Each structure stands twice: as structure tokens, then as C-alpha cells.
Structures
1.
Amino acid sequence: MNIIFGNYGDGTIALIQWAHENALDNVRVCSSDTGFASSSDSWQRQLEKGRALALDYGFEPKALSAVMTWPELVLNRGSFPSAQFQWCAGWLKGLAFLDYLDEVDPSCEATVVLPKHVTSARGDVLLQEWENHSPHFGDRRVWQPLYNMTDNDFYDLIRRAGFSPLYHRSLECAPCIHSTPATLNRLTVSDQNKVAILEESLQQPLFAASAFGGAQGIAAVVEWAQNQPLDEQSEYPLGCGTPFACGE
């Protein structure tokens, strides 16, 4: 069994297409429902189209619900995660995925297939194609078949799948704790409001003012971001969620 783990961003779409073209068999495609995804119509269409692609290729898509949604998690802990204390990915994605793996693969024979790839822009020079015993996935084997693919070949896979590349991280968490000005400029009003409600409940901001030009609170942070350079590629080398396909 080959189990793709991603979130229907560019990486997941490229990997689904690669798996199809290389006749990978017994494929499941798992994604994470964090309860904090972008509310934009374009992102919802991306999810629907991505799942339809998996089905068209004879793969089995599976949306995994987080043990606790992002809002439930931060309210339960009484604080937001941060770039320094990055505890969200494991709770939101890792636990649900590991439970699923133990359910469908109790003998630990499946291969977990991840979408990461190395380029000068995306950055992880230590990325390897194989990890035979991953501690993140119950010592199962991890395969990253796109790991040394060039950007041109990567984006060609996406186009052959019938998609236009997003050129930004997937939006399963909107906003992510690692948000850049480009990320923040994509937030819908609804996404800003859900953050404002949590900030009011916790009496603390999601983003430290010191990292966002002194802006305090989500409305001020978004206003600050609107006047900043928008570098999409800077979003990619954000390592805390790498094992759990954050942004892919």
C-alpha cells in the first residue's frame, strides 16, 4: 500500500500525477482537515478538484479530521502556537494520520509517500528520497520520489494533471503561524474574523507585533502586510511541519 500524505497544494497535485504516470498501485491520498482552512472559494475548488483527480486515477482520497480543530486546540491550551513553539502540526495532522495508519496498516508494511522536493528556492538540502524507519509514522518507510525534481519538471506535472500551479503553499491552515506578507494578503475577511475571535478569547495576538512592524492583532497585521514586498517563494522553507506535509 502506498499512502500519499498532503493537502492538495502544488506538491500533492504533482505527486498524484507522478504516481499515475508511474503506475503506482494501491494508492490512498490522505489530507488533513484542521478546522482552520481558507474559506476562499478558490481553495475549496482546489480541494474538490484534487480529490476528483485522485478518484479519476483510481486512487482513494481520505480527509482526516484533526483530533481537535485548530480553534479547539488553541483554546484548550490557552495560547497560540508560534514560530518558536511549533506544536500545532503534530496535533492537527500527525496524530490523526498515525491513527489512520495504524487502522489500515497494523503490520506497518505501507509506504508513506510525501510531496517534498529540493530546489534552490524550496531549500531543504538534507532531503532524501528514502527513510526506511520514520519515527513520525510508526517506523514505516517514507518515500519522497520528487525530492530532486527541478521546478520545471515539477510544475509540468501539475499542468499535465489539468491544474494551474498555485505557486504558494496550500491553505489547510489560514493563516499559518509562519505566514508571510504574501500569505496574509490572501486571507479572506472570514479568515481574518475567525482569528480576531480567537485573539479576543485568549486576550493575545496570533502574531508577535515585533515580527510584523509593530502591528498588534490580525487586522493591523494584514494592513501592515499590504504594504510589504510579496515574495511567494519565501514561504516554502518553513520546517516545523515538514514531516506532516504542511504547505504541500
Note: The chain has two domains: 2-171, 181-225.
2.
Amino acid sequence: MAVPKRRTSRSRQGKRRSHLHATPIQISYCPYCQEPVLPHRVCPNCGKYREKDYAPREKTEK
């Protein structure tokens, strides 16, 4: 098996991992109620997505 002769330096390791950084969450705003909402999801405040009205789910108690 191949075994590295030298330890990977911190700078080389950092260069390799330069694209693994965390990206911030993209937040858009609902065009109807102006509340922040994640993209491609029904608005939790007004229940609309792409001009359609989606009723919020009702919780069933057991």
C-alpha cells in the first residue's frame, strides 16, 4: 500500500479544505406577508406558496 512519506502541512490541508466552509442559510421574504421564509417552502405565517393557498396542518392529539 502507498504510505505518505511526510505529514501533510496545515497550509496544504487548508488549501484542500478551502471549499468545505459553511454557507449561510438563504432567507427570502414572503411576497404576501413579508415574513422571512426558506426558499421553495410554504410560508409558515400565511400558508401561501406561489400564489396557492395551503392550509396549515392541524395537530392531532392522541
Note: The mean pLDDT is 88.
3.
Amino acid sequence: MARVTFITGGARSGKSSHALAMAAEGAATPRYFIATAEALDDEMRARIARHRAHRPAEFVTIEAPIALARAIAEIPDGGAGVAVIDCLTLWLSNLLGQGLDDEAIARAADDLAAAIAAARPRIIVVSGEVGSGIVPENPLARRFRDLLGWTNQKIAGVADEAFLMAAGYPLRLK
């Protein structure tokens, strides 16, 4: 079984469901869900509520909208079990919302990759794929697309396996 798995894909492609199913395989416990979403508006609160309702009760939720590398390093119980990180797309959005420049975000992505590589539990990372469409006309959207693409490459680089989700089906990349 892979120790680090990276799952990417478009919106509503089945990334989170696949990650939870992978985490539920076998006897790895405890099970952690490291959430990066912040409930900043009603629509996001509803999305978070839907995710919580679909997540099995045995998952311990760790909220880490910004300090994701630290959250991974501080997983309790001696690092046993499995942790699902959902998702890098929102984490990057949170970093942009903090006003970080590209260099600071690149350093945060490097720190995250190092934390994932050093983690003791099995890690399953979920991230969106936003670079397959047209070039956005908005400079912020282009910046987001580029930063997420670079971040995804760094995290996929430390993963033992990687999948692209399409219409609910995983396509093995690595």
C-alpha cells in the first residue's frame, strides 16, 4: 500500500469520495481528516456541512486552513493510521487571502511537501486540477492557476502514487 497518495481532478469529479474510500480500506486507525476549508459565507458553510455529513464518524477532524504542514507534523497518536488532506485548492486560496506573495506561497508548498514526505501516517492528499481549461482573463485567476499547478507538482512529486479523477473514476498517473 502506498504511503503517500495524491488525488487531483476537476470540480465534482469524485476526489474526496475516492480519498475517503481509500482511507477506509484496511485496518489503519486512527483516521484523520485534515480540513482546509473556512466557512466564510453561507454557501461555504453548506458545502462544509455536506462534506461532514458524508464523512464516516470514525474520522477525527483537524482544522488547518493555513498551517497545513504544522497540522501534519502534529498528528497525535504517534503518527499511526491514515490522514486525508482535503484540499490543497482551498489551502492555496486561504494563503492568497492572507496576502502572501508567490515566493512565500512557494515556500509554504515546499514546507508542505517536506511535512508530507516526513509524516508517519499514511497521507492521502486531495487537490483540484484547474489548469486544463482556457487561460483566465483575470490576473488573480491566472496567478491562482499557476500557483496551484506548481503546488500540485511538488506534492505529486513526493507521492508514491497519483490519480486523476474523471467522472468518478480514478485514472492512475503514477
Note: The chain has six helices and seven strands.
4.
Amino acid sequence: MNYPKADLFKRFIASLIDGIIASILIYVPILGGIVSTVYILTKDVIAYEITKNPDFKNRSIGKKVMGLKVVSMEGKDMDWERSIRRNLPLAVGSVCCIVPIIGWIIGAILGFIISIAEIVLVLTDNNGRRLGDRWANTQVVSTEDLEKHEDVIDI
């Protein structure tokens, strides 16, 4: 399936919303870093799996707010494994930060480098697919574009 590239501003705001949620989760007593990392890894399925609300199917809270959705290039729904593969590059820094001091340094450096690479890929790839999207074979699309595409298929 071939979809148009999602609006970059909407993707940025969705990412910012999800980042704020992950940052707030850090303050969960004792397990904050782990809870935050789990959210980052599973953000494209966790809201749907907890609520079973179809509005959250294949999307994080930020993507829902901004009218975006993650689609599999094979037409499959997001699942835990696909979400983890897709978001692993974003969580590498967080995972490293679990180890005090040296982990924080390595995590900050790795997180920064990977984030820059991901941004460059979103900006330069024709479909806006970052490294995580390539690993999970996914693409972020506008729900409007997705509905238009489904209308064409239904004809």
C-alpha cells in the first residue's frame, strides 16, 4: 500500500504530546523510568489494548489528537511486537538510562544521535518513514488520507 506522507507539523505535535506523557510517567514512584520506557515502546497499541476504544486502534494518544494513524505496509493492525519494533529506536536512550551515571551518559548520547537520524529520515523519506517504520514495515498517515484511500478501494 502506498500512502501520502503525513503532515510533518502534525507528526511533530503528536510526538511532543507522547513525549510529554512519557516524561510525566517518569515520576511514577520506584518504576518511573521503566513505565515511561514501556509507554514509548508500546504507545501505538497500549491505549487501544487498555480501553478497547476503536478510536485508539493503531495510534498513540498524540496521533489520535492530531488525526494520524500508523499503518502496516501489509495491511495488518498494530500489535505489541510491531509497536515495540517501530518504537525501539526512540527508546534506546531510555533503556540505557536505567543504569545510573554511565547509562545516563551513554543513553543521552545514543538517544540524541538516534533522534537526529530519525528526524532526518522523516524529513527526507518520500513517505516519511523513519528507521523504526522501516524495521516494523509501517508508515504514519493522516486519517483523512487513509479514509480517502479506503473509499477508492471500496469502489
Note: Residues 21 and 36 are 8 Å apart (CA to CA).
